[in-house]
Amino acid sequence: MAPFSPRLLAAAAAAALIGVLATASSAVARGETAAYTRVFSFGDSLTDTGNALHLPSTGGGGPASRPPYGETFFRRPTGRASDGRLAVDFVVEALRLRHPAPYLAGGETAAEFRHGVNFAVGGSTSLPPEFYEGRGLKPFVPVSLANQTVWFDKVLQILGSSDHGRRKIMASSLFIVGEIGVNDYLVSLIGNLTVGEVKTSVVPHIVAAIRSAVNEVIAAGATTVVVPGMIPLGCEPQLLALYQGGGGDAGDYDAKSGCMTRLNGLAEHHNRELNRAIAELRGAHPGASVAYADLYRAVTDIVVSPGRYGFRDRPLAACCGGGAGAYNFNMTAFCGASGSTACADPSAYVSWDGVHFTEAANRHIACAVLKGRPYDDGGAPPAAATPTTWPTAAEAGRSRIGCS
Ligand SMILES: *[C@@H]1O[C@H](CO)[C@@H](O)[C@H](O)[C@H]1NC(C)=O
Ligand SMILES: *[C@@H]1O[C@H](CO)[C@@H](O)[C@H](O)[C@H]1NC(C)=O
Ligand SMILES: *[C@@H]1O[C@H](CO)[C@@H](O)[C@H](O)[C@H]1NC(C)=O
């Protein structure tokens, strides 16, 4: 596929929304310094630290393989869809762990995987291609959450030959399952499903896929699983630009944030349903700790009060892109393509390329994840009493990455 074809850009952009931070803790630590020994993470481009680069369908390319991606921190493109670190990078720093190995980067040895594995792939959906084919829609990449859990099973076999040994490894690991689902929503909305149709016919399947992945890792012995929720879709420059001029099904704009209320309503609906599933998981697995990470609030807090968090006062414009106008987003001049330019100070921006966050926003998201803020949108029951050391480990980690 030609680099920067609109379809690839869409895929790359979508892929970018991947994942995030996961993290949680295992019951292992009880009073010891290292609460966790490694991280296993699942998700999309918000969490991908180098997997999509190795998909044959991207030809080793995609925008995140080119400058100016990585310019702030790594000083070179690494496959991360940001100017620097992702939230998962900040979380492992905060917990003083090694960066998990991108699963598709090669290796496939116990030595490689012993320090944790990142299964997140830019562009990944939570639902498999069959779900979309039946509806006349096309996912961006041939990877869904089911592929990632199959890879996890393979890693499990490589890591330990006895069931007891494997369960011990899982119990000392932090699992981060998500963010995943953004690409499902992009595929559906770009394919002209209405927000109402997405709510009734897509959301329940996405939440079921996430629940099934969490069940699977707990069955393998995981004792701490962090499940990040949906980001505020209505604040994404890509979607703001897509619906600009009244097309589509965006609905009104929120007066305080400038975000699209109907798309944010979809994200809030996702998060309510996800929390319902998390409550059920807690009931079914009293020996495991399942934490919710509120990415929605982490991002909307900045968008509503950018100055308070050190961001500029136009938080809905992308730092890097080729668009004129309020959002600086143009799909045919996507960040890194000719016709695009990057802002001088990415740390003042929330959105890096219109789809993915800047390193500065990712740090803030990581801080929020490490805060373990309880879900407070009403309805969801409080967390069950669990044996987790996550709150203590997370709080200690916050100070290490400069959270206020
Ligand atoms: C994901 O799983 C599907 C169905 O098993 C398979 O066809 C596809 O090739 C897998 N993708 C990758 C990248 O392995
Ligand atoms: C969605 O609708 C727009 C505007 O009506 C149209 O141009 C576009 O081709 C449609 N996309 C799909 C995938 O049907
Ligand atoms: C988007 O970028 C392309 C390529 O640089 C350019 O031809 C087009 O005019 C731009 N569209 C808008 C609306 O700015």
UniProtKB/TrEMBL annotation:
<keyword id="KW-0732">Signal</keyword>
<dbReference type="InterPro" id="IPR036514">
    <property type="entry name" value="SGNH_hydro_sf"/>
</dbReference>
<dbReference type="GO" id="GO:0016788">
    <property type="term" value="F:hydrolase activity, acting on ester bonds"/>
</dbReference>
<feature type="compositionally biased region" description="Low complexity">
    <location>
        <begin position="380"/>
        <end position="396"/>
    </location>
</feature>
<feature type="signal peptide">
    <location>
        <begin position="1"/>
        <end position="29"/>
    </location>
</feature>
<feature type="region of interest" description="Disordered">
    <location>
        <begin position="380"/>
        <end position="404"/>
    </location>
</feature>
<dbReference type="InterPro" id="IPR001087">
    <property type="entry name" value="GDSL"/>
</dbReference>
<keyword id="KW-0378">Hydrolase</keyword>
<protein>
    <recommendedName>
        <fullName>Esterase</fullName>
    </recommendedName>
</protein>
<dbReference type="Pfam" id="PF00657">
    <property type="entry name" value="Lipase_GDSL"/>
</dbReference>
<comment type="similarity">
    <text>Belongs to the 'GDSL' lipolytic enzyme family.</text>
</comment>
<keyword id="KW-0325">Glycoprotein</keyword>
<dbReference type="InterPro" id="IPR035669">
    <property type="entry name" value="SGNH_plant_lipase-like"/>
</dbReference>
<feature type="region of interest" description="Disordered">
    <location>
        <begin position="52"/>
        <end position="77"/>
    </location>
</feature>
